[in-house]
Design goal:
- This protein is α+β, with helices and mostly antiparallel strands and 96 residues long.
- The chain has one domain (2-82): GIY-YIG endonuclease.
- It is 39% helix and 20% strand.
- The protein has four helices and three strands, in the order ββααβαα.
- The protein has helices spanning 22-31, 39-42, 57-68, 72-82; strands at residues 2-7, 14-19, 47-53.
- Strands 2-1-3 form a three-stranded antiparallel sheet, sandwiched between helices.
- The longest helix is centred in the middle third of the chain and has 12 residues, at 57-68.
- The mean pLDDT is 92.
């Protein structure tokens, strides 16, 4: 299981989610780009800037809830520690 954070091109929005297949979920987010009925579509938040693996769904959901409760400043610091340049992560080439 994965907990992940997406942002938009101007990094003004963060979306936190959970999935068991990160590549598939990123594809799904990219297909919803521009869909006003979906948060990630409305705000064009489909750039992966952070992810972490959790041993099981229960822990992933707990971590997601924890991150969602953090301030923006704390989320930004987490992302910067993992991905200092905030470059969109390509799972095929990521070596972090």
């Amino acid at each position: 299981m994965y907990v992940y954070i997406l942002t938009n091109p101007t990094q003004t929005v963060l979306y936190i989610g959970v999935t068991n297949d990160l590549a598939r979920r990123l594809y799904e987010h990219s297909q919803g780009r521009g869909d006003a009925n979906k948060f990630t579509g409305r705000y064009q938040a489909d750039l992966l800037v952070y992810f972490e693996q959790c041993p099981d769904a229960k822990q992933a959901i707990a971590r997601e809830k924890q991150l969602k409760g953090w301030t923006r400043q704390k989320k930004d610091a987490l992302i910067a520690a993992f991905n200092p340049t905030w470059q969109a992560i390509d799972l095929e080439t990521w070596d972090g």
